[in-house]
Amino acid sequence: MLAQLASTLGALQLPLRISLPDGESLDLAQSPTVELRIRDPALLAELQRPTLDALGEAYIEERLDIHGPLPDAMAIADRLSQSLVINAPGDPPATAPHDRQSDAQAVAYHYDLSNSFYALWLDPEMVYSCGYFRHAEDSLARAQVQKLDHLCRKLRLHRGDYLLDVGCGWGALARHAAREYGVRVHGITLSEQQLELGNQRVRSQGLGQQVRLELRDYRDLPRSEQYDKVVSVGMFEHVGHANLDNYFRILAEQVRPGGLVLNHGITARHVDGRPVGRGAGRFIGRYVFPHGELPHLATAVGSMSEQGLEVVDVESLRLHYALTLQHWSRNLEDRLEQARALVGERSLRIWRIYLAGCAYGFAHNWMNIHQVLAVKPLPGGGHHLPLTRADLYT
């Protein structure tokens, strides 16, 4: 079988070694940087058509081991699948259920894994979203503080404002906005573990009078135009295509006329929202983000507009997210034994592939991430935003 693989793959000149349990091995180029150690010999036949989700699943199920730098392994897997898999247009857009129960279960699956596990590879503030790099050499911690401040400046936060944070995570943005801008913040999440740690940090930093975090579904918010600003970071990926209009309608109902709504989220490459081809989207949906659905930017902007929000600014942070994920992946790789003790071998394998694969995917334009700022116009259509963006960078 190795001879057959050599015939199929040899022309690709991949820096890859394939090793069998009996010690036999095949180098596909001189000086390979990555070794696939095959545990299940039946897998060799499947390497004739190696979709990205099949390769990832084989690693998770311990049918193979990967030795060598994961970024190199991602590039090799991509080249393999590009060369040997017919690049079909990809799966149709997902149509998963998105009721309160299924959304809460999906959030718990992903976010309630272990606060200690996330702390191994996130920054000290526990920001689980794209950083903002003023320079490529910025540390992860600096990039995340810069991102929090970038959001606050885009929202034009002022002392005394009341901010709604939808999908507040561990509360980093809520604490930053309260501490640095003097605002009151109401944050909601569906993750019990995030809420517990977030509230601990609110109390320890003496912000209990300004910040209130609670377990609540966005669909259960009262509709009373009580907030000056609304922000949602890394949340609308979980909403679902069918619920997008309702989601933005609820955000619009929360904010007072003249107020701002900022949505920060991952967006699809394809206009119809279908996942990227060759199995990468299927892998993420199966193992990482159950029921996750990525709308295209055009869909998100259209939905916001239909719900009475005027989109005034759009910024792509795709390359910022590639850098962020590279930091996360390296941090996890540096702490594998600690991570294995916290979440076990199978979950660790999922996260190793997920972080390294997403770093590669964002760098290669498989998906994007956008901050979309909108205003709820005043009666008559006006608003109080500056005429230029100059204040963001002063």
From TrEMBL:
- Similarity field: Belongs to the CFA/CMAS family.
Under the heading CDD domains, the entry gives: AdoMet_MTases (cd02440)
What protein am I looking at? SAM-dependent methyltransferase
Q: Which organism is it from?
A: Halopseudomonas pachastrellae
Question: Biological process GO annotation list?
Answer: lipid biosynthetic process; methylation
Which superkingdom?
Answer: Bacteria
UniProt cross-references to InterPro entries, sorted A to Z: CFA/CMAS, CfaB-like, CMAS, DUF7884, SAM-dependent_MTases_sf
Asked if Lipid metabolism is a keyword of the record, the answer is yes
A Gene Ontology molecular-function term?
methyltransferase activity
Q: Where is the DUF7884 domain?
A: 12-85
Give the residues annotated as active site. Answer: C358
Keywords carried by this UniProt record: Lipid metabolism, Methyltransferase, S-adenosyl-L-methionine, Transferase
